[in-house]
């Protein structure tokens, strides 16, 4: 795993804010580290929704043409989550990736349960999976192979910080 800096300790209510510019730096840093470690994935598998921006960035930076997504719902709001991660349709057929090197990508390893579910599903399908996140929290039970930073704060990602546009009803 990347030597992520020690988690920042924050007063209640403070947040870790990731900007688009800093996100670009994170993508490049992670891709450089992954390539430097000698891992050459055949496929980048993004965990929707939060992992998709990082998956796209890493696919370009690592020159991986094959990408796939898996939809997993766990968080329903700030510090609000379902009892267990739930895989939603549509989803990649992991059997098609058997025997291949796959980079599983998510935005954060908080509890580690979402990452754990996807990596376990990959292993069951015969996929050689390694994982990467932008942030790793000290509470994770599933360590990613690579993480850009560590934090114990709630994270505001640039793609979700503002929420849906007005007039969009929640499904």
UniProtKB/TrEMBL annotation:
The keyword Iron does not apply. Signal peptide: none annotated. It comes from the Bacteria. Coiled coil: none annotated. Keywords: Glycosyltransferase, Transferase. InterPro entries: PRTase-like, PRTase_dom. Pfam families: Pribosyltran. Residues 16-160 form the Phosphoribosyltransferase domain. GO terms for molecular function: glycosyltransferase activity. This is Phosphoribosyltransferase.
């Amino acid at each position: 795993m990347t030597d992520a800096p020690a988690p920042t300790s924050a007063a209640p209510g403070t947040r870790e804010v990731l900007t688009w510019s800093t996100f670009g730096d994170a993508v490049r840093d992670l891709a450089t580290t992954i390539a430097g470690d000698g891992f050459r994935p055949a496929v980048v598998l993004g965990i929707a929704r939060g992992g998709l921006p990082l998956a796209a960035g890493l696919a370009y930076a690592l020159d991986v043409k094959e990408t796939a997504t898996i939809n997993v719902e766990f968080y329903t709001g700030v510090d609000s989550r379902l009892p267990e991660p739930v895989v939603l349709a549509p989803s990649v057929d992991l059997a098609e990736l058997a025997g291949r090197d796959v980079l599983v990508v998510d935005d954060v390893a908080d509890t580690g349960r979402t990452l754990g579910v996807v990596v376990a599903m990959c292993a069951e399908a015969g996929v050689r999976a390694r994982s990467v996140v932008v942030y790793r929290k000290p509470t994770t039970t599933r360590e990613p192979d690579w993480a850009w930073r560590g934090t114990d704060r709630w994270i505001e990602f640039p793609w979700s910080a503002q929420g849906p546009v007005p007039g969009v009803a929640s499904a």
